[in-house]
Design goal:
The complex is a heterodimer of chains A (135) and B (566).
Chain A lengths: L8 H31 L4 H31 L2 H23 L3 E3 H29 L1
Chain B lengths: L3 H16 L59 H4 L9 E3 L6 E10 L6 E10 L6 E4 L18 H8 L46 E2 L5 E2 L10 E8 L13 H5 L3 E2 L7 E2 L1 E9 L5 E3 L10 E3 L2 E15 L5 E13 L5 E12 L21 E3 L7 E2 L8 E3 L14 E3 L6 E10 L4 H13 L6 E3 L12 E9 L6 E15 L6 E15 L8 E14 L28
Parallel strand pairs in B: 10-14, 13-15, 22-24, 23-25
Antiparallel strand pairs in B: 1-2, 2-3, 5-6, 7-15, 8-9, 10-11, 12-13, 13-14, 16-17, 16-21, 18-19, 20-25, 21-22, 23-24
């Protein structure tokens, strides 16, 4: 085989951007939940699941990005595969925040759409990288 | 082609993602009216959902099957009705304005057209804000909650939740604290408090007073420490005057007063004095007041009828009555009289005190009598105990005859300028000197004081607190001078702080003006007016408010402030 690097540069860039964007997404969504709870009628039994999902997504994001970085840089497919699995979970949670939140503001829709497209693109690149590493 | 398989896979993936149907555009849900769930009675029922279709909502449609004026959304209005409208009272019907995308019904009147016609448009209203509500998954977010309809199953739960006085998690305890100490029972020594009716052995001490009309009602109890004076009319008949209880002295003194409420300690009412009033109004004091005089019929008159009672109750400072005395005015009722006026008074005095009412503390209060007195050699000031007869001026009477007006005096009240007078009829037979002396008595009264208290609360011992009355005589040089006017000028000043100035009398001047009495030819009469007046003059110096000094700024820099350079 050629001595090219198999690590995918677009994936690396995307993972890096995803990390920064996710911090912004997390803070913005949290701020908007606080805003919604003050302005609208937001009972506690509906507020709890929304906040839980957000924090769960945050907790999931850290190992997902770490495994993605590690897998891409060490050209190992196992961490990358694990990261792909965690991405599926993140996508589900993000879809919840997009569709099934108590109040979905237009800003929520924009942020979640961008995040989902980032996840989609990332998954595609990861699959390609796994294919490259395996072969 | 180094990575065609990877690139191809990438493109396939992108294609798949693009072809995925986009999430359907979410609109805020417009819930259709839910039919009341009648199938299963066990399920919780709620009232039908509210109408939310903006095209059918019309808040100004109040009259059923009739057209409401200026209500453009009223379905009962026809085109002819619309042509008579001037404006639309409800121009826009819309849902919550925070939704991103919603329908709005817009009603307007086209006044240009002839006849005016109504324009109805259903438009999509867009909220441009980035924080507009795109969707909600919570139905009650934008609508009021429909209340639950009670059924047999949920009744108990609803009652527990909403049946209390307020909707709370823990119900309020509405019972009063049963451990609260009960008010002290009567076996403790109680005492009279202000306003409490004075109790006698059978009921209350009665002070007859007019109730609604002027007729006497015997059911008015006297309140402790409540000084009262009442006058009322009682119907009498001379034949039965010895059987009318209210005319007899016994009625007012036979029941003893309880010293403290609900006790057995009694205080007898003693007769302090008896004044007998004759038919023409002359009163004379009886020397012996221990003989009980009961009404009896004598020569078509009823004598010894009670015309007035004056109670004097002495009490201790702990609210216990120790003495009670009554002063009576007895009179005679003639045969023609069908009613008489009785007057009653009650006053309370604390034991061992001589209540001397003050006219201010310390400055004089407008409307209270000016305090005045005499100073015999070497002692303090002596005042009359009647506060209304210390400094007086002549009181005008209805007859306006000076010589018949003797005795009626009006007290000088602080701050009230008064003028009064009478007319003197001079005949040729009157002699100068006795007339002058009589007029002086009429003007000045029986005991014209020498000193006036400068403060309302000046004590009799502090002689320096009293201002002497300066007497001036203005007279012409002629043999026969009669006084014709007395003018008392009281100069007072504001004393003390700017915020709460007190009135203080500084100077009192009594000026007697005399005029010559011309000898009249016999048979002729003259009427001359005699006046007396009181004037209060404020001679306060303008106030000098004192201000605090401007604050000075003392800045001193430390000696090493400019350290490296100094």
């Amino acid at each position: 085989n050629k001595s090219f690097q198999l690590s995918s540069l677009p994936l690396q860039i995307l993972l890096y951007v995803n990390g920064i964007y996710y911090i912004f997404y997390f803070l913005a969504t949290l701020a908007m939940i606080i805003y919604k709870s003050q302005v609208f009628s937001y009972p506690d039994d509906l507020l709890a699941p929304d906040v839980t999902v957000l924090f769960l997504m945050g907790i999931l994001e850290v190992p997902r990005l770490y495994l993605g970085f590690k897998g891409n840089l060490t050209e190992a497919e196992a961490p990358l595969g694990l990261s792909l699995g965690l991405t599926v979970g993140s996508v589900v949670l993000s879809v919840y925040l997009l569709l099934w939140q108590t109040y979905v503001l237009w800003a929520d829709v924009l942020l979640s759409a961008v995040l989902l497209s980032t996840y989609g693109l990332e998954s595609g690149l990861k699959v390609m990288a796994i294919a490259a590493f395996v072969s | 082609m180094a990575a065609p398989p990877g690139l191809r896979a990438f493109f396939v993936l992108v294609l798949i993602l693009l072809l995925l149907p986009p999430p359907p555009p979410l609109r805020a849900e417009e819930p259709a009216a839910e039919p009341a769930d009648t199938r299963d009675a066990a399920r919780v029922r709620s009232a039908p959902a509210p109408l939310t279709d903006v095209a059918r909502l019309c808040v100004c449609d109040l009259l059923v099957a009739q057209c409401d004026v200026n209500c453009c959304c009223d379905p009962d209005c026809s085109a002819e009705d619309f042509s008579l409208f001037t404006t639309c009272s409800v121009p826009v019907v819309t849902g919550d304005s925070q939704l991103c995308n919603q329908k709005a019904a817009v009603y307007s009147l086209d006044v240009e057209a002839n006849p005016p016609e109504r324009i109805f448009k259903l438009i999509d209203q867009v909220n441009p804000s980035i924080f507009c509500i795109h969707a909600t998954n919570y139905k009650q977010a934008l609508y009021l909650k429909s209340p639950e309809i009670p059924t047999a199953e949920n009744f108990d739960q609803l009652l527990e939740k909403f049946g209390g006085a307020s909707f709370r998690a823990e119900p309020e305890i509405w019972d009063l604290d049963t451990d609260a100490p009960n008010p002290p029972e009567a076996n403790e020594t109680s005492r009279y408090e202000f306003g409490v009716p004075v109790q006698t052995e059978d009921s209350f001490l009665r002070l007859p007073s007019p109730v609604v009309t002027s007729w006497c009602s015997d059911a008015n109890p006297a309140g402790f420490l409540v000084n009262q004076a009442t006058k009322c009319i009682r119907s009498v008949s001379v034949e039965k005057c010895d059987s009318i209880q209210a005319l007899s002295m016994l009625f007012y003194i036979n029941s003893s007063i309880l010293a403290v409420p609900k006790s057995s300690q009694m205080v007898n009412i003693t007769v302090q004095s008896i004044v007998v009033q004759s038919l023409n109004g002359m009163r004379s004091l009886l020397s012996s007041s221990d003989v009980l005089r009961l009404p009896m019929v004598l020569d078509d008159l009823c004598i010894n009828a009670v015309l007035g009672v004056n109670y004097h109750i002495t009490h201790t400072d702990t609210g216990e009555i120790i003495e009670a005395a009554a002063a009576f005015v007895l009179g005679a009722i003639s045969k023609e009289a069908l009613s008489i006026e009785q007057s009653f008074e009650i006053s309370f005095t604390q034991e061992n005190t001589q209540p001397v009412p003050l006219s201010g503390n310390p400055g004089y209060v407008v409307g209270l009598p000016v305090r005045a007195g005499f100073q015999p050699q070497g002692s303090g000031i002596i005042q009359s105990s009647n506060k209304h007869s210390q400094l007086t001026i002549l009181q005008s009477t209805s007859t306006q005859d000076c010589l018949a007006a003797q005795g009626a005096r009006a007290p000088v009240l602080f701050g009230y300028n008064m003028i009064s007078g009478c007319k003197l009829r001079i005949t040729a037979a009157m002699k100068c000197q006795p007339l002058a002396q009589t007029l002086l008595d009429v003007l000045k009264g029986q005991s014209f004081p020498e000193y006036v208290a400068s403060f309302g609360n000046s004590q009799a011992q502090d002689v320096l607190d009293w201002v002497p009355i300066t007497q001036l005589h203005i007279s012409e040089q002629s043999p026969c001078q009669i006084p014709v006017s007395l003018g008392i000028e009281v100069k007072w000043t504001k004393y003390g702080s700017l915020v709460n100035p007190q009135a203080r009398i500084v100077n009192v001047t009594a000026t007697i003006t005399t005029s010559t009495l011309k000898q009249l030819p016999s048979g002729r009469e003259r009427i001359i007016p005699i006046t007396s007046s009181v004037v209060f003059t404020d001679i306060s110096a303008p106030a000098e408010p004192s201000y605090k000094a401007w604050p000075t700024i003392n800045i001193k820099l430390p000696f090493d402030f400019f350290y490296p350079f100094v």
